[in-house]
Amino acid sequence: MLAASGCGSTGAEHAGKEVDVSVRDFHIKAPKHVPTGDVSFEVYNRGPDHHELIVIRDDGKKLPLRGDALTVDEDGLGPAVAGGLEPQPPGEHLVSMRLKKGRYWLICNMSGHYLGGMDRDLEVR
Prior knowledge:
125 residues, Immunoglobulin-like, five-stranded mixed β-sheet, four-stranded mixed β-sheet
């Protein structure tokens, strides 16, 4: 079962490159490179918790943390957030977005997950 959530396009609108992403506690597995344009991330949450996938354009600065010091301040990132999948239970989920050439971060921003290692760099070329 695929479910579209979060920012970006729904699954019905994706026509570009499909990218497999696997998430589980404190780990994200994804390709290192994807082509520019429309990208659909097929996210398989291996659990055991809910996870999310946020795609952030890397501007060379450290990601800002919220006051809780456990999560990234997504609101403070503005247009650097390319899209994302809101927290989802274990299973398969789909989120699509258009990516420009550059470097990005894939993160899970559930409390403590990013700081615990749930991040992955991605080059769009």
